[in-house]
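FORM 7B: Structural annotation worksheet

SECTION A. Query
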Amino acid sequence: MRRIAAAVAALALAGAAPLAAQYFGQNKVQYRSFDFQIIQTDHFEVYYYAAERAAALDAARMAERWYARLSRVLHHEFQGRKPIILYASQSDFQQTNAISGDIGEGTGGVTEFFKHRMVLPFTGSYAELEHVIGHEMVHQFQYDVFSRGRIGAGVQTLINVNPPLWFMEGMAEYLSIGPIDPHTSMWLRDASLEGHLPTIEQLTYDPRIFPYRFGHALWAYIGEKWGDEVIGEILQASTAGGVEAAFKRALGLSLDDLSSEWRDAVQTTYLPQLAEHYRARRIAQPVLTQKRSDGTYHLAPALAPDGRDIAYFSERNSFFVDLYLADAETGRVKRRLVRSTLSNNYESLRFINSAGSFSPDGRYFAIAAKHKDKDDLVLLDVKKDEEVRRIRVPLNGLTTPAWSPDGKQIVFTGYDGGLSDLFVVNADGSDLRRLTNDKYADLQPAWSPDGKTIAFATDRGPGTDFGQLRFGNMRIGLYHLDNGAVEVLPHMEHGKNINPVWAPDGRSIAFVSDRTGISDIYLYDFGDHNLYQLTDVFTGVTGITPLSPALSWARQADRLAFAYYEDGDYNVYGVDNPRSLRHQPYQEPATPPVTSLLAATRRDTTRSGTPAGAATLADQPRAAASVYRSPTGFRASSATPPKTDSTTGATAMTVRTLLDSATSLPDTSEFTFKAYHTRFTPDYVARPTVGYERDNFGRGFFGGTAISLSDLLGNHTLVFAGAVNGRLSEAQVLTAYINQAHRLNWATGFTQEPYYFYQPTTIQSDTGGLSVLTVGIRRFVIRDGFVQAYYPFSRFSRVELGLHAVNIS
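SECTION B. Predicted structure
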């Protein structure tokens, strides 16, 4: 017990140094001091600053709608308001102190356990924002269940349950997205085809397996087979007996049995589809693959106008994603154009949501690059391998720059106050102009060959209603430069339609769409106004996320390059004269895309003449051991839930129904607005220990505890720790205050630490002739008052100062 108390004090002491967590890593720099305000709703406190006020109000309304949905499906309610901290851009988000450590480009949001804080940036797409809020709020519900409604409690419960990532992240994906979507389906098809479909045990213990998509599919299978109401039952039960026992109790199955059933359902659903589609190599030539170019990520391909070279993002043989130039025929890497993460000018290349583009003469290459707290538009001279111009724009961020056909202007998506719009700037950096100014998502612009029109991806359409915060599918829009009018192309009613690229003659546009449930390449022809499907691949034409750019069309060579997901890698394929792939105009399929893992089972059951769920308990020995109590009564855990209750007429609650329902939105007039003030609340409290001991050396009390407190934004931290083992004068003590509110981080505090050293042992005789053994112990008590300061010049360099006043007794 005494060792535990000493360890607690030592742990708290280590946490007192504000620089320790990032000492050997890159610096987290607070380039700006954000003046946060608070929107108080019924269940949340939303933290925002002035630049994002309009978007923050919408986010607060979305949060309340998500709470109404999730509290129903999880059968749980918050006892207090939860914090949501919003940032206007990814660059601002990466400066947050609410989350410790470095925040990478792939992090779309974080929910931490101790204060249940949800922290996320705006991305320029309200549909994506709603997904992230829903996903992270599921984590808030999970943590609230583990802590039994008390923020800061439940640490031991979380340690005991030790929920795997597929459990936590998969549940969050399913409850925020709903049934299996095209992106998850792509992962399932690929894993089934290549023989890499993991078991639940592998999902739990193999760190190489990305758990989000497979976890999403597993929870979708559970929700469809046993009813979505069982998800809350499993979550609640996991706090008492752990994950395995919770599934056994709710479903009547062990995780091994569930794993076998789920894998069988996935393979039965997707493997038969192989005959209906083909691999990319049937219609295109591989260009960038691990064998040809090294690496497993070949992202955002950009062909030179003559089609001979291709620029792309890849990790290749390093830990970081950099910009490379390769031969567009052989895939041979010529050189690395930009080394990211090691330079102040290229802290990030926005490789997930952005792509670069060649100038019409092929000499220059334009990219977006993070520099300090902004994104710059950078022009590279490809032949000289040097940066020729850096255009700084007064926006929160930018992505996907594209050249005008005369090479004098560049269009890009700019992010301002959490919203995305189209902007144009001259290639010399002058005359920045905003083309659109609204809440619609305006992404991935591409300039037409005649210079009169800009194609882009947008959520404009009848399905989008910002008053009701309903967002339609992504469509291909046209911005006409002569009058500023925006036109949405026809045949865009279904699926996600993104990444438009113009044909060399400007008579058609190719783009990526998942309208059939698979992301393929389509062509819209301006002559006959018809839509043509160019590819019918088995996995998908895609980047890392559903909105990542994946297409490039060389204007002089009539060559198309596209990113293709296969065997867990993102490869790039090329096809000459891509319009030769078009056949008959596209017709909507008679049957909708498969989103059910039980569809094949139901077909087999129907053929055999046995109604689904008709087996008796005698036929299902495992089900007899577990009974699930639903709102409509009791049923065997292994039985499929009924869709309706014939007595009450109540419809069984499903995630799909909740996501599609018109859950009422609060009016902003119901919100309370207030300024942010620093208020300390506990991050954690080490369990106090106390004891009494008596032995040959004496007697005394021992024990200790530690507490860390901070404000919601993580800018101010207080740490107190103490441990005693005998005399109070020899106690271990720590008090510290840490200030990270500005670029200059500093800390001050006091420590007391006793040290004991053995001295030579002596043997003496007393007056009675007895030998007395004396063990010599020398004690030092070191008292240290300290002040430390840390000033980062950038993510890669800093200066540190420290002052200590030490007393030794």
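SECTION C. Observations
Residues 787 and 803 are 5 Å apart (CA to CA). Residues 1-22, 605-625, 644-650 have pLDDT under 50 and may be disordered.

SECTION D. Sign-off
Analyst initials: ____
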